[in-house]
Amino acid sequence: MSPFSLRGTFTALVTPFTEADASIDFPAYERHLEAQIAGGINGLVPCGTTGESPTLSEDEKFALIQRAVHVANGRCQVMAGTGSNDTKKALAQAKAAVEAGANAVMLVMPMYNRPSQAALCDYVETVASSVRCPVVVYNVPSRTAVSIDVDTLIEAANRAPNVIGLKDASGNVTYCQSLLARVGSRLSVLSGDDALTLPMMAVGARGVISVTSNVLPAAVGRVVHAALEGRFDEARTEHLRLLGVHDAMFCAPSPGPVKVALAHKGAMSSMVRPPMDLPTPGQKGRVVAALQMFES
């Protein structure tokens, strides 16, 4: 495979579980990986938020990454979700992901304990310096209760040259603009919010790490591909067509809705691990209706 490129459509993979005991359903997982590759995505992202990473053991994470690498077999890139509110654990996760064969790691900001900006910079530098692979910072303040400032991210990237980009799930297009205005092509930005993919690409983001692409990989990919080629009228048409699906994927806490969508398509069980729960019947109906409207 060519050197890692943070560009295009990456899927924030769900983790399928069995109905019997909520163990990982590896046959369903492998089918899902093949469907993603057939849909033309550029990268697989196991063990992120959408993969219910807080409920996965370290052994399960290793197995999921390793299986993704094996199935991909060089046909697309694998970027493993890592990170913790304990730097020692984050280091171990990053090293394990590389051992499992990941092409890159995605490092989420520490959750719950809310470190200072100086501590966030040290966290990124420490983990990035421990691995010989590209590192993508994941900023998702709605989940972690802390946001890495633009200045902090730039300083961390200056200290650790293998920090190559950002998954921006801040929900704030200004953040993306402020970063890109200062770093140019030094750091690549991918949208972490499906509904903001096109607005972010209009100011220089290079794609998306998508939830919706679990269900509609080719459709999400068409938006990104058209935007990357400067065909923004076409990208806008496709993006607006998908908005109802994007909205439905977050009508209840994620990944419940996307798992309902995949179960509706017969891809896997909708099972989630506690304390997550499934959408209500009304929310499930909204997910199915959004898919039917898109496909009509």
Quick overview:
The chain has 296 residues and is of the alpha/beta class. It is built from 12 helices and 8 strands.
Key phrases:
TIM Barrel, 8-stranded parallel beta sheet, 12 helices, 8 strands, globular
Order of helices and strands: EHEHEHEHEHHEHEHEHHHH
Strand percentage lies at 5-15%
Question: Helical amount among residues, as a percent range?
Answer: 40-55%
Low-confidence stretches: none
**N- to C-terminal distance:** 37 Å
CATH superfamily label: Aldolase class I
**Strand segment count:** 8
CATH class: Alpha Beta
Give the class from helix and strand content and strand pairing: alpha/beta
Instruction: Round the Cα radius of gyration to an integer and report it.
Output: 18 Å
Largest sheet: 8 strands, parallel
Total helix count? 12
Overall CATH architecture: Alpha-Beta Barrel
Walk me through the topology:
Blueprint: E1 8-12, H1 26-38, E2 43-45, H2 58-72, E3 77-82, H3 87-99, E4 104-108, H4 117-128, E5 135-139, H5 141-144, H6 150-159, E6 163-168, H7 173-183, E7 188-191, H8 197-202, E8 207-210, H9 217-228, H10 232-248, H11 256-264, H12 281-295
Parallel strand pairs: 1-2, 1-8, 2-3, 3-4, 4-5, 5-6, 6-7
Helix pairs in contact: 1-2, 3-4, 4-6, 9-10, 10-12, 11-12
